[in-house]
Sequence to fold (221 residues):
Amino acid sequence: MTTLLRVDASIRVDGSVSRALADSAEAAWKSEHPDGVVVRRDLGRHPIPADVWASVIAGKHGLPTPEDSDRADYADAKALTDEIVNEFVSADAVLLAVPLYNWGIDQHVKTWIDLLLTVGELQTEGLVAGKPIILTLARGGGYSEGTPKHGWDHATPYLERIFGDALQMDLRKAVAELTLAPVNPAMESLIDASKVSEEEAHATAKEHAATVARQLTSTAA
Fold:
């Protein structure tokens, strides 16, 4: 039996493109693994308090906690960190759905990643090296090469650096751009292009998930 860890980050539920892309990927994965388990962590609905990371780091390194600090209790923060790391390491594959907010990484994803990286062995011992991870990404504008804002997307390179380079995971992406076109009058002329981008991203998400699922089946055989 295989396990897929799905992590969503959008603060939207209805109408979220990153979630919809992840739905397509999950459906394709389930079609290959009908008996597989999907573990869910919804950072958009249930964000990790930002002070958890500070508490874990302070406790780990024996740093004093200011008397007037509202920092989370170390034992509770450590327990949550262990839970997050264990589900990440234990999963056979990871599906991470991330929107682009203000040209950068969603703050809740950053906190989640910071907690993962408190365990240095993830990188130094390659605990997740080679593990497949699929990113379903939604960008409100256009950031591809040749567009006026090419290079303004600071989230995707960061995710690639962390999961692809630092953790050496097998990273795949499905990206939908211009997702704000249907709701932004200034982008009305880009609605058709946004629909094409989203359709292509759904197809790519399904393809990646099916490929990963088949690889896991082959490995387990």
Remarks:
- Strands lie at 3-8, 37-42, 93-99, 132-138, 170-176.
